[in-house]
Specification:
heterodimer, A: mainly alpha, 2 domains, globular, B: alpha/beta, Ubiquitin-like (UB roll), 6-stranded mixed β-sheet, 20 strands
Chain lengths: ~400, ~450
């Protein structure tokens, strides 16, 4: 470690102002701070600071996604071998998925980080860690057979239009990962919907077992094929077709527990999304005029991307509501709208993405109203104390 | 017994180096200094020059904007230096003490029989008026103003804070005299706020003329700003004053003995102190004789006050005007390998992002490293967890950054000073300089509204 530190200190002057590689200053800084926490000490304000920093925070979110990722890899293989009617063991399943998923992750990180580094250099500030999370989220919310160039294009679009045009991490209005997903959905709809995209190797249509559909539970539900919907246990565990990381509610809940326990993710948002979804589901059950509306409200919570969105997408602190009260309202409406879109919009059975993006836009309005309420309340208190003092 | 106001939000940072309840007499400190930088918003005009002889209570400088406001010498001796910083800003006026302290005589007086004007005049002339501070803004109140009420926080919850029950135990008569003075200054109540988690000490219990309020909870429950917020919130409706319990003793002594006696007990704390204990010394006294032979080796930071809000001083620096605590912690000017990946059993965090949550009750050595680089606001809800006030902290800070006066006013700039949001600064993942921003906001408010 000391040796490494010495080497870094030796080459550091080249990357500083006036050095040969001044243009790579931000890049060097990113790698240096990746290896070592800077030696900068406090000069004003509090003399000591919490041990936490953005890197640690973002890494924890990534760790929270690992269960969903690992399960997604296994499930990719599992679904593939079911579709092709091949006998396969645990390791075969996982390896097949690993080989399919890893390139998507690599492409997502490579394209996104390239954009991040360029912008950091242009803006002359440190490389932000936000993309560590976005870069992992994107692979988890795409179908496994998505062409890699699409992942790359969508990622670059999301980072530039979704984030950097607003000023970078912390300034963006829309969740970058969902921006990427929405871009893919609207730009290349044929690759993002239909029954064959969710399972690896089905696009070419070769070697599929007779009668195998590949449709996701949501697709079946929206078509009214309620008999084809898998058991709720299967949907909870995640042995169903779907985007790579979204299928296993169990794995997602493990991630939710990590986020909640470490204090990195907002339990207010997560819980209220589920409550909102449940409410809408119950309302739809009341008016059940078609099979989709008859699906028990709680089953909606384990179908499609609902749980994944609630835990990893809606909780993005930058694009969610920022006030404590606002978070309840924001989360509730995300869940509420997601199920509404899912059931009542026949063109698009997965409402979570649009619901979150929609509420991202409305989050500042929610915060504004929470603030106004706070202002009024405090003014009232101050007046009250004035009167009290006069009486005495 | 009135109800205990229970505060849930906040954070006690478990640091090593709490002072043991042993009182030491360290002997005369040799040098004293009064630091105009302790008083935000004051523009000092010197009244003495180098080599002048002064007595305890002799005016050293006054405020250019408020010529009645004097700042006096804590001890007698010779003025040896007027140290200036950038643009000739006066940083400290240093006095080399004589062998025995000689006092200016202000005459004894019974506060109950003295009229308000005379009391104000005495406090101003003796240089004790600056011991009073007001909300909004945390500045010295104008002599012609009247507070709605006056607050005394009888305890301190800051990291390694001194135990005021221990400090105050033998000062009943001076404390009562101080209270009697305060009662002449306001038509409202004197609020004495004590820690609801412990039995109240006699000094506080037996004092007359106050309303006792009980607070319980983690830091910042002991901050006067938090207590004012819960009992008599400040808005555009006039000021509330506050004063520290030890500082009130100084006012008490002025009336009982007729002299300016800035004696005070300070706690020497921090992980780098060999024997953290209490010392009987004086406001503005050099810390040299307290620290000598009691400090560990290494590159250290000396702080007058606590680790969250204190002022950095040199190793031979002076105790600040309002402070009852000296803290010594290690500097953090070294790199840490893979900070984002290590388990972090020895690193405290308000979050549970480090595995130190496995060991509750442990005390930590914390250095002055930022532990990260500055970022834009990303995390939310962190500040709310450590601010027990009905204020939305992050939005307030943002309104100050964009200099939106209306928003600042509405979101609560009148109710807070730096120390109330010090914990927000501590926990901030983005390493935002919250305290600096709050002071800038306050300065902007003063400029725009005067």
């Amino acid at each position: 470690m000391k040796l490494l530190r010495k080497q870094i200190d030796k080459i550091k002057p080249h990357f500083q102002k006036g050095g040969r590689f001044e243009m790579l200053h931000s890049t060097f800084d990113a790698f240096e701070t990746f290896l070592f926490v800077p030696d900068k000490v406090t000069t004003r304000g509090a003399h000591i600071r919490d041990s936490i920093d953005m890197k640690r925070t973002m890494i924890i979110v990534v760790i929270a996604m690992v269960p969903a990722l690992l399960f997604g890899m296994w499930n990719t293989g599992y679904q593939h071998f079911i579709a092709t009617g091949t006998e396969a063991g645990f390791l075969d399943n996982f390896l097949h998925g690993f080989v399919k998923v890893l390139p998507i992750i690599v492409v997502s990180y490579a394209s996104g980080l390239a954009v991040e580094f360029i912008f950091a250099q242009i803006r002359n500030h440190e490389v932000n860690e936000g993309f560590l999370v976005t870069g992992m989220l994107i692979p988890l919310i795409v179908p496994v057979d998505v062409p890699l160039w699409m992942v790359s294009v969508a990622t670059i679009f999301a980072v530039i239009i979704g984030k950097e045009v607003f000023g970078g991490t912390g300034m963006n209005i829309l969740n970058p990962a969902l921006t990427a997903r929405a871009f893919l959905f609207f730009a290349y709809p044929t690759y993002m919907s239909g029954d064959f995209v969710w399972i690896s190797g089905l696009l070419k249509g070769e070697g599929i077992v007779d009668g195998f559909s590949g449709a996701t539970p949501l697709a079946n539900a929206s078509l009214g094929n309620t008999e084809a919907i898998p058991s709720s246990m299967e949907m909870f565990l995640g042995t169903i077709p779907g985007s790579i990381g979204e299928t296993s509610t169990l794995a997602i809940l493990i991630g939710a527990a990590i986020l909640w326990f470490t204090g990195v993710g907002s339990i207010r948002i997560m819980a209220s999304v589920f409550v909102g979804g449940l409410m809408m589901g119950l309302i739809l059950n009341l008016f059940a005029v078609n099979p989709f509306m008859e699906i028990p409200a709680w089953e909606h919570l384990i179908m499609g991307g609902f749980a994944f969105g609630a835990v990893f997408m809606a909780t993005d602190p930058v694009t969610a509501s920022q006030t404590d009260r606002g978070k309840y309202i924001y989360g509730f409406l995300v869940g509420f709208l997601a199920i509404l879109i899912r059931v009542l919009n026949p063109a698009y059975p997965e409402g979570m993405m649009l619901a979150i993006l929609f509420m991202n836009v409305f989050a500042p309005l929610i915060d504004h109203n929470v603030m106004q309420a706070n202002i009024k309340r405090r003014l009232k208190r101050a007046e009250g104390s004035n009167i009290l003092n006069k009486v005495q | 017994m009135s109800e205990v106001i229970k505060l849930k939000k906040g954070l006690n940072i478990p640091l090593k180096g709490k002072a043991e309840k042993v009182l030491v007499n360290p002997g005369p400190p040799g040098q004293y200094a009064v630091k105009p930088v302790d008083f935000p918003g004051i523009r000092p005009k010197m009244l003495v020059r180098v080599d002048d002889q002064v007595r305890a209570g002799t005016p050293l400088f006054f405020d250019k904007y408020n010529p009645d406001l004097f700042f006096t010498a804590p001890a007698s001796g010779r003025v040896v230096a007027v140290n200036r910083g950038e643009r000739r800003k006066i940083l400290e006026v240093v006095i080399k003490a004589g062998e025995k302290i000689e006092y200016e005589d202000f005459g004894k007086a019974d506060p109950g029989k003295t009229d308000r004007e005379e009391i104000v005049r005495r406090l101003l002339k003796s240089g004790l008026w600056p011991l009073l501070r007001q909300r909004p803004y945390g500045i010295i109140p104008k002599p012609d103003s009247r507070p709605r009420s006056i607050f005394i926080s009888g305890f301190d919850t800051a990291p390694l804070a001194p135990d005021f029950d221990f400090i105050m135990q033998d000062s009943a008569s001076e404390f009562q005299a101080g209270i009697d003075v305060l009662r002449r200054l306001t038509d409202g109540k004197i609020h004495l706020n004590v820690n609801g988690d412990y039995p109240v000490v006699d000094v506080y219990k037996k004092v007359s003329g106050v309303q006792l309020n009980y607070f319980s909870g983690p830091h910042p429950a002991g901050n006067p700003g938090v207590q004012i917020h819960h009992i008599d919130p400040v808005h555009k409706n006039g000021a509330v004053w506050y004063i520290g319990p030890q500082n009130l003793l100084v006012i008490g002594r002025l009336f009982l003995d007729g002299v300016v006696d800035f004696s005070r007990i300070v706690a020497l704390t921090g992980s780098e102190v060999i024997n953290p204990r209490y010392y009987r010394t004086m406001m503005g006294a050099s810390v040299d004789n307290i620290l000598r032979d009691n400090i560990k080796e290494g590159n250290l930071r000396y702080i007058s006050g606590n680790v969250l809000t204190g002022t950095r001083i040199p190793a031979k620096g002076f105790i600040g005007f309002y402070d009852s605590q000296i803290t010594v912690i290690p500097e953090g000017d070294h790199h840490r390998f893979l900070g984002w990946a290590v388990p972090g059993l020895d690193r405290f965090s308000a979050s549970r992002a480090f595995f130190s949550w496995l060991m509750p009750g442990r005390e930590y050595v914390s250095d002055t490293n930022y532990n990260g680089g500055p970022r834009a606001f990303v995390m939310t809800g962190e500040y709310e967890k450590v601010l027990p006030m009905d204020i939305i902290p992050q939005q307030l800070v943002k309104s100050i950054i964009v200099e939106d006066i209306d928003k600042m006013e509405n979101l609560g700039i009148y109710e807070v000073v730096e120390e109330d949001l010090a914990l927000c600064e501590y926990v901030c993942t983005s390493k935002t300089e919250v305290q600096t921003i709050i002071r800038q906001g306050i300065e902007l408010m003063i400029k725009e509204t005067s």
